[in-house]
Amino acid sequence: MRLSELATSQKGTITRVHGSGAFRKRIMEMGFVRGKNVEVIRNAPLLDPVEYRIMGYNVSLRRKEAWLVEVIPGEEYRIETEPYFTTGNSVQTPLNSIGNGKTINVALVGNPNSGKTSLFNQASGAHERTGNYSGVTIDARETTIHHKGFRINLTDLPGTYSITEYTPEELFVRTRLLEGKPDVVINVVDASNLERNLYLTTQLIEMNVRVIIALNMYDELQKSGARLNYDDLGSLMGTPVVPTVAVRGRGIIDLLNRVIEVFSGTDTVARPVRINYGKTVEASIEVLDTGIKKNGGAPDGMPSRYLAVKLLEGDRAVTSMLRSNPALASLPGLAGSERSMLAKSFGEEADSVMADARYGFIAGALAETMTPGKNAADRA
Predict the structure, then answer these.
(1) What is the pTM of this model?
(2) How far is CA 133 from CA 130, 173, 188, 257, in A?
């Protein structure tokens, strides 16, 4: 659970500190490090700030900051030093040990009606906790699953068709993924409507998070007569694919096994994949990506290419964030110039061009891996 969820007078043991950059450095310097005990002294009447006691002194945090600290209630947990594993891109990441097990933080995302809730309920046995996070009224449900010696913290995020900034749900999900930095993201995809559902997958790929596709309602795809080589689809997209039928509990164990493999760096399919937007758009992305890197890099450890893509799409949240950073404040203006150039070249706005490219990427992947069913062929 998160530090922000502890009640007044409740104690906990810190197991992980999320976030990056200046915030992470500051909070760890204050004593919020793995293995330390923390106690809630008092909650402010208006929610913020919350006063905590750690390492013999009191300190106040905003609830949003406290949410980035992961804890186990009570003081009976022993934190052990753990080995490191090396992922495919040679980035070393620690395995977080709690007692003799290891903790994996997993976010569950997907389109509305993709069967995400059924999958969550089957995995959790419906013993979930529901709570509001980061000062918003949007619900996210959490549960803990113990599997093969691992403690899997599963968070069910609101259903969304996209991760942009057009609805509170979309922005909430995006913020949770970028700031919370889950170890693995399970993207629940409706197998009977792959083209639409995989659009969200392409956005997750751009965020450079470790993704597993839960190919849900797989029985419906089979009944349609369609045939899908889901292993090849996973290889093309750099995301392992696990077929599931959540309402019947099928594929859940396979999915949890794949989570452990991806987390441990032993999965042979998971790898970074770059969506190619074409020569002209890629040139604009490179201009912005280079500008971000030359001016101190992306804030909070975000992928610089991802921010460049968002700037080119005119994303208001990213634009506002960079304008508030003195070192990167010139980038939104540069992005505006690039968008104008692209609009003249293509006769339409950059975000439309880029959306078309994502659907082109999906269509190409499906053309190589899927044979439509007879009914679908007749309708075509």
Answers:
(1) 0.74
(2) 10, 11, 22, 28
